[in-house]
Amino acid sequence: MPNDYLENLTKLSQSLIKPMKDLTELNTKTLSRLAKNELLEDALKAKKPEEFLSAQTKLVNVACMESLKHTQEAFEILMNAATESNKIIEEIVRKATVKSADIAQTGINKVKEKAQGQQG
């Protein structure tokens, strides 16, 4: 019984650790791409207000697209994690239900045997 508990806890924690690692990698990759963007340098090199505004507008567009891509990838990671966790939890509940039914059936059989022994 304790081994089942630890095994289930291990499976569940592993299904949660992987998505957190994937999200961390995604965040790092996204921030790295945004920081390496050449448009940031263009905004810093602008000499006229129009150039600065144009560079900022382009930078915002790129950042919005990057944000959208990040959100889509994060959603996919989280959905996969939820699906995997759900499978593990369903298996744990199924095993517990079977075990409970077996215990209940054993108890019912003992009561029946005891009742038959008293009648006979």
Tell me about this structure.
Helix content is 94%, strand content 0%. The chain has 120 residues and is mainly α. The protein has one domain (2-89). Helix 1 packs antiparallel against helix 3 (49-119) and helix 2 (38-45) runs antiparallel to helix 3. The relative contact order is 0.09.
Quick recap:
The chain is mostly helical. It is built from three helices and no strands.
Layout of secondary structure:
Elements: H1 2-35, H2 38-45, H3 49-119
Helix pairs in contact: 1-3, 2-3
Oligomer kind: single chain
* Overall average pLDDT: 88
Which sheet architecture does the biggest sheet show?
A: none
Helix/strand-derived category reads mainly alpha
Overall, the morphology is rod-shaped
Strand content: under 5%
What is the count of β-strands?
0
What's the number of helices?
3
Q: What value does the Rg take, in angstroms? A: 29 Å
The H/E string reads HHH
Low-confidence runs: none
Ends distance? 37 Å
When the domains are counted, the total is: 1
Helix content: over 70%
